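cron nightly-structures :: item 1 of 1
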Amino acid sequence: MSITRRFIQLDVFSRQPMKGNPLAVVIDGEGLDDATMRAFARWTNLSETAFLLPPTTPEANYRVRIFTPKQELPFAGHPSVGSAYAAMEAGLVDAGKTTLTQQCAAGLLPVEIEQTGVERVIHVQAPPPRLQSVDTDTCRAISEAIGLTLSDAQVSLIHAGPLWWVCDLRAAAHVRALKPDMHALVQLSEQHGAMGVSVFGRESSGPAQMVVRTFCPGDGIPEDPVTGSANAAIMAFLAERGDTSYGLSYLVSQGREVGRDGYIRVKRDAAHGTITIGGQCVVLIQGELDL
C-alpha cells in the first residue's frame, strides 16, 4: 500500500515567485528506496529534488538526500538552503531556531537563520573545498567551449560537493554575453567527471557585486538558474588566488539569462576559511503526493 507524503515546491535564492531556482522537497522521505527517489527526481525534471529524513546522529536536526535527474549529490547549495527552509515550514524543526545542523552525504553542515517567517534568510556552510590543477589542454578545451581564447581564461577545478570548473571572466558584460557550446561541455563533463562550468565577472551596477552563470548540460541542465555550490567554489577560487577585491562577503546575481533573478550572499570566514552561501526562499506549492 502506498503512503501519502507531504510535498513542497519552492523557489530558492529569491523572495519573488518564479524568479529563483525551483526545488522539489519531499518532506516525509523515510521509507522511500533509492530507485524511487531517483525516479521521482527524474519525474520532477528540476535541477534538484530533496528528500527529508530523520537524522541518524543526535547532532543533526534533519537529514537530506539530494538528487538531480541523473544522479545523487553529496551536497548542493540551493537544495540545502531550500531544505532547511522547508523543514522549518513543515514543522520538522522549530521555526524559531537561529541555528541548525544539516546531515547530508557530505557530512554535518552548520545552518544559520536570520529573521523569521517569509523574510527568513538561510545560510548553509559548504563542505571544505578541494582545488585541483587543470592541465593546459583541458584549459584550452574549456576556453573554446565557452567561447574564449586561452589567454582570457583563468580556470580551476574545484570540488565543492559537486566538481566544478570555475572561470574568471572579469566583467559582468562578458559573462552575460556568453553562448557556450553545450555539446562540447557535455563531452568535457563526461571525460572529467565534472558537473559543469561556472563563470563570473564583476558587476558595476545594481545591488550585486558579482554576476555568475553556471552551465551543466552533462547533467541535463543546460544553464542552472541559481547555483549555491558553484558560488561556494568561486569563493574558494578567489581565496586560493589571494584575490581580495570582492572582500569576505558579497552578493551574487544569477539567472537573468534564463528568465530568473536570483541573489546569493556568499561569505568566507577569515580565521577558519569556511564558506557559507545564503538566501531567501518562497513557497509556491504545498500538497501531498502518493508514491
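cron nightly-structures :: done
The chain is about 25% helix and 40% strand.
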